[in-house]
Structure formats: C-alpha cells, structure tokens
Amino acid sequence: MRIIAASLAVAAALAWSGPAGAQELAIGVAAPLSGPSAPLGRQVEAGAAVVARALGVQVSTADDACTAEGGAAAAKQFAAEKVAAVVGFLCTESIEAALPVLKDAGIPVITVGVRTESLTDRREKTGWSVFRLAPRGDDERNAAATILTRLWRAQPFAIVDDGTIYGRELAETVRNAAEQAALKPVFIDTYRPDMDNQIGLAGRLKKAGAEQVFVGGDGDDVAILGRDAAKLDAGITVAGGEALRAAPSDVPYVDGTLMIAEPEWADIADGDTLAAFSAAGVIPEGYALPVYATVQIVKAAAAQAAGRPLADVLGGQDFATAIGSIRFDAKGDLTQNPYRAFRFEGGAFVPLPQPENQ
C-alpha cells in the first residue's frame, strides 16, 4: 500500500511539472523503474517529483533498468532533451554506459547510489563529469577505522571477522588504522558465521581481556555475540558496520552495541522538506531525500553558473541541502565521510557525538 500511494503521488507531481520546457531548469533523473531494483528506483522517482514541485524545476525521468543498455538509452534521451544535469543512477553498469554519452553532451551527473571507487578515481583519465552524493565503497571501513580507534584508544580491544570479503576488508582496515595509531588489539580471529551461538568466541574474548570488539560480519552474528558475551558477564561492547541497520532475525542487539553507518536521512532532514513530502503524500525513505538534495544542488549551481559550465560550479563549494551542507572534492566525491557512530539504546540506534575533526 505504501508503494502504491507513493506512486500515485509521484504521478500527480510529475503531471504538475508540465511538458518539457515549461520550467526554467530541466534536470534528468535516471533510475531503475523496471526489474529487481525497481522499488529503489521508485524512491528516486518520488524524491525527484517532490523536489520538482517544491523548487519549480522540470524533471525528465528515464528508466535505466540497472543495465548498460538502459543507461546508454537514458543518456541519449537526456542529451536530446538538453537537460542541465542528470541525477540518480543506482547501478555501476548503467552509469558507466551513460557517462560517455553525457560527457559528449556536456551534461554533468550526480549519482546517489553508485559506490564503486573507480567511478571517481578514474575521473582524470576518463574526463567524466561525475559527482557522488553516495558514499564511496571504502567510506564505511575508513570511518570504522577512524572512529573506533579514537573511541578505543585507552581500552583493550579485539577485531574479528566472518571470513567474507566484506567482513575481512572491514576488519583489516580497522586493524591497519589501529597499528598506525600505535594501538595493538589483544585478540584477532576469524569466526564461523551463522551459528546459533558464539559462546566459544565470547569466552576467548573474555580470556584475552577485550573490553571492545569490532566484528566484520552481519547483524545476526553481532547480536548473538553480544548476547553470549553478556551471559558470560564479559563486559564487552560489540561494534559492527552498516550491516547492523538490518534488524537481526531472532536475537535482539544488546544495549550499548555500536554501529558505524550512514544516518537515516529523514532523521536529519529539515522541517520544510519533510513538510513538502507530507503534502505530496510521499514517504521520504531510501533514496528520496538524497535525490531531493541533488536537485537542490543543481538548481543552486545553475543560478551561479553565469555562462560557465555547470560542472565547474558544482565542485569546490558548499551547497545547503535538505540533508545538510554538501561539498564535492576535486574527484567529485564528498569532502566529508557520511558515516557516523551510533549506539543501540532502548530498541533503536541513536547517534553518538561526532569527533571534532570528523
């Protein structure tokens, strides 16, 4: 019912925005509106529709289907329409197929979902005019390393992982950062995931004297380890990455569990923006608010362009948006890592105060 209601509201907002050329500024919106990723694409479409109505801009939506073929077709559509910029894109295949076409057309792109590091790392080589409101693929593990080594500087800590690529990369990044900060974990191990209990691991951690443990693994394993450590009265705080956003299957998280993750955008969005979503009957979930912010950025940059290429204005300055101040670096990435620390309290994760230079 939520998806149907949002779709009706989107249709109404898009109908309001009128035919191409009716608005002063035209912006392309690329999203997967068919296939397995369509529910996420509808969030993009919803956010674009609400911001089009709120800011009085023209949006043109194309289904990139999360495929190379769909991305190329969407780019050709936007080039023919001569849009000022394109926002959206959730998949590497579609954006990488679209960027050469959009480069030739002189149209910059802001992606809200593609985390592939090489997308911006190759900017100088490819000449692609791409900016990223999404985090980089390495932002999560870099944030975990930076935040936790600061929090645990004076406490004995351990690092464990589940042996997967994701878990191992997270754990290795935290371990390397600790070593660079002259900190040495009291225990390092790879555990067997998806077990009914982790009492053995909890016992080894207690014996090693660990008071904090970072887990490169999923939420279920973190919840079970937290429960079993509490059974042993081990006095251990368990931490993990953004996989903890997914509620564990059977065992709840223990109060005090730490999570390194992006904020829930609806929790930090300004009141006027949330009121605009409410008035449109659209739930501001998932990618809806980031897309809203990208359109705000494009409109602000277009107002300052004064004949200059829009891409030149997008880089190197702060933009006020519904989800806070945004600034892109020379490669097109965010200048500030969006990941933050949260603590589980009373059934929900609540943000911890940020380190001063985070």
Automatic annotation (TrEMBL):
Source organism (scientific name): Ollibium composti
Top-rank lineage group of the source organism: Bacteria
Leucine-binding protein domain boundaries: 26-347
Cleavable signal peptide: 1-22
CDD domains linked: PBP1_ABC_LIVBP-like (cd06342)
Similarity comment: Belongs to the leucine-binding protein family.
Coiled-coil boundaries: none
Keywords: Signal
Protein name: ABC transporter substrate-binding protein
